[in-house]
């Protein structure tokens, strides 16, 4: 028998809300967090639309002295983890810190730190590099700072599989708890890559939207025939996963059960998924097998749904391969039209969407979808979401390098 794993806490900082309540309100009402880029002067850039974290008071979670040692992606991760701990009533004395770990996904690390200090290197030479540059920029500092903040001494790591990073981190955390090595894991993902180098670099590979700079709120258009690229977002989403008996003993709130994980690699193209969606379909099927479920047990798929010309039709193919004719009975939505694409943080926030859908019996819609592309013919719930029976949700993520990851949450039952 596998040890059962449940979700007992959640926290997020993202373009559509700086906590779970605000985020859910945006999802329920169809409020996008996407807008014109204000992080830097982007007049010379082809893509000038982003999903930025707004009105966020970092000092609610980290004191000013510690903030000077953290890149933005780390601050978002720590804030989200603190929220999750509070949500779970995860209080000192209710757990063994040696048996609680942290595993977060991150694709890029502290880009703003690298860029700022490279400029200083060019201007002033090596002495211009700030002393904390390396500790701030490297991706493991997100989980490390979460562990320091919460006093956790279990395994602590970063998973970096591009846009699949957070979903892989959640899946690997599930395996750690099941194995008996730990009782709890803070897991999810984080990213803060709205910088000149990042936007410029993604633009050079024609991954970002450029058509909607004057109408940014509709720039991310998953599955729509008029989509032209993704919108860079930032933020974090962290869940507290806990072994069931440990959670019951603590009298923790239980929001859902995490029951399945599957991961594959296309081993093909560096930036494009397998054209037939074989790897993505396999990851979904593996997650179903791990969960002991059949396609008919799933009610809703939170799709990767990036709004790129390449991803959306291939992901649709993958869903059809994994689910057969039942794919047409599923609700399949992309919430990136609300949050933008947080790269390594995306799967963490979308896992939270999956849990909230189960909690609230509501499927958030694909907000900006008006005219589905030919071949994109599933029920993408265009516009604002709908009330629906949601007993089980699959969330999938596809990343550069051919990484595919899928996780399944279901309604908790004794």
Describe the fold and architecture.
Keywords: Acyltransferase, Fatty acid biosynthesis, Fatty acid metabolism, Lipid biosynthesis, Lipid metabolism, Transferase. InterPro entries: 3-oxoacyl-ACP_synth-2 (IPR017568), Beta-ketoacyl_synthase (IPR000794), Ketoacyl_synth_AS (IPR018201), Ketoacyl_synth_C (IPR014031), Ketoacyl_synth_N (IPR014030), PKS_Beta-ketoAc_synthase_dom (IPR020841), Thiolase-like (IPR016039). Pathway: Lipid metabolism; fatty acid biosynthesis. Its EC number is 2.3.1.179. This is 3-oxoacyl-[acyl-carrier-protein] synthase 2. With 414 residues, the chain is an alpha/beta fold. It folds into 2 domains: 252 residues, 3-Layer(aba) Sandwich (Peroxisomal Thiolase, Chain A, domain 1), CATH 3.40.47.10; 151 residues, Thiolase/Chalcone synthase (Peroxisomal Thiolase, Chain A, domain 1, 3-Layer(aba) Sandwich), CATH 3.40.47.10. Helix content is 33%, strand content 20%. The chain contains 13 helices and 14 strands. The strands form 2 sheets. Strands 1, 2, 3, 4, 5, 6, 7, 8, 9, 10, 13 and 14 form a 12-stranded mixed sheet that branches. β9, α11 and β10 form a beta-alpha-beta unit. α7 crosses α13 and α10 packs across α11. The longest helix is centred in the first third of the chain and has 16 residues. The mean pLDDT is 97.
């Amino acid at each position: 028998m596998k040890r059962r794993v449940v979700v007992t806490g959640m926290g997020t900082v993202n373009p559509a809300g700086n906590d779970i309540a605000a985020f859910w309100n945006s999802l329920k009402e169809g409020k996008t967090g996407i807008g014109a880029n204000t992080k830097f002067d982007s007049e010379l850039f082809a893509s000038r639309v982003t999903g930025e974290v707004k009105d966020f008071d970092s000092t609610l979670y980290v004191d000013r002295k510690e903030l000077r040692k953290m890149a933005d992606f780390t601050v978002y991760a720590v804030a989200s983890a603190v929220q999750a701990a509070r949500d779970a009533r995860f209080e000192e004395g209710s757990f063994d810190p040696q048996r609680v770990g942290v595993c977060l996904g991150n694709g890029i690390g502290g880009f703003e730190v690298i860029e700022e200090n490279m400029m200083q290197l060019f201007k002033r030479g090596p002495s211009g590099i700030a002393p904390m540059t390396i500790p701030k920029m490297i991706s493991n500092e997100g989980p490390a700072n979460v562990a320091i903040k919460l006093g956790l001494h279990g395994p602590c790591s970063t998973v970096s599989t591009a846009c699949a990073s957070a979903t892989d981190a959640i899946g690997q955390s599930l395996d750690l708890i099941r194995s008996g090595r730990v009782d709890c894991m803070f897991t999810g993902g984080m990213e803060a890559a709205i910088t000149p180098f990042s936007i410029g670099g993604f633009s050079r590979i024609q991954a970002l939207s450029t058509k909607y700079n004057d109408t940014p709120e509709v720039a991310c258009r998953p599955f729509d025939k008029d989509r032209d690229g993704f919108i860079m977002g930032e933020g974090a989403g962290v869940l507290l996963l806990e072994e069931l008996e440990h959670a019951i003993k603590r009298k923790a709130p239980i929001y859902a059960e995490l029951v399945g994980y599957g991961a594959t690699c296309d081993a093909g193209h560096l930036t494009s998924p397998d054209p037939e969606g074989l790897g993505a379909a396999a990851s979904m099927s593996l997650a179903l097998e791990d969960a002991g479920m059949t396609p008919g047990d799933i009610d809703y798929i939170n799709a990767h749904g990036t709004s790129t010309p390449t991803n959306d039709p291939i992901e649709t193919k993958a869903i059809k391969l994994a689910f057969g004719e039942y794919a047409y009975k599923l609700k399949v939505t992309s919430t990136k039209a609300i949050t933008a694409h947080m790269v390594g943080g995306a799967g963490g926030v979308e896992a939270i969407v999956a849990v909230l859908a189960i909690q609230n019996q509501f499927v958030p819609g694909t907000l900006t979808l008006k005219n589905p592309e030919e071949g994109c013919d599933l029920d993408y719930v265009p516009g604002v979401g709908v009330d629906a029976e949601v007993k089980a949700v699959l969330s999938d993520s596809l990343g550069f390098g051919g990484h595919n990851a899928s996780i399944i949450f279901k309604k908790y039952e004794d």
